[in-house]
């Protein structure tokens, strides 16, 4: 069987490769999935993505299947319970930010009819198609992620720096940063049409 050419960052780890092959860069338009990635990217800040990916199912269980309506109403007791959960990243500020972000997420939904509409407007509704030759040379931030970060902070979101948001844009297909030699580059490009 011919070996698939993938982006260099995921090679050698089955979980990473599966995520890369099936999810990373695929345009996401439903609010539930966008929120899930927002939470996961928040927890990833300062850590490697594989660390979060390995704990993803624990996060899903701990955070009520990423249900932002439930998360927005978490009590102090629930927050303390999360802080004791060894299956997730037990960062007090990030856990509290998740509750804050769930509330802010619903406010944006109310204002724009959906969070998806709001966030995709930053790229005029179409994925940005980059021509990345080596993932090491892909940007960590862009003018768009800077603008999005600033706007979300104004709306009350926490842990939404430009680097976190650019990673979110990559994960949810707002930007296609698959290496041009990667088998997914052309496939994801087609999905964005």
Can you tell me about this structure?
- Strands 1-2 form a two-stranded parallel ribbon.
- Helices cover 55% and strands 2% of the residues.
- The protein has 193 residues and is mainly alpha-helical.
- It contains 11 helices and 2 strands.
- The protein starts with 13 loop residues before the first helix and ends with a helix.
Summary?
With 193 residues, this protein is mostly helical. It has 11 helices and 2 strands; from the N terminus they run H-H-H-H-H-H-H-H-E-H-H-E-H. A two-stranded parallel sheet has the order 1-2.
Q: Total number of β-strand segments?
A: 2
Q: pLDDT under 50 segments (min length 5)? A: none
Rg, Cα atoms, Å = 17 Å
Run of helices and strands = HHHHHHHHEHHEH
Q: CA-to-CA gap between the ends? A: 30 Å
Give the CA-based shape.
Answer: globular
Strand content range: under 5%
The percent of residues in helical segments reads: 40-55%
Averaged pLDDT, please? 95
Structural class: mainly alpha
- Total of DSSP H or I helical runs spanning 4+ residues: 11
Tell me the major beta sheet.
2 strands, parallel
Strand order of the largest sheet: 1-2
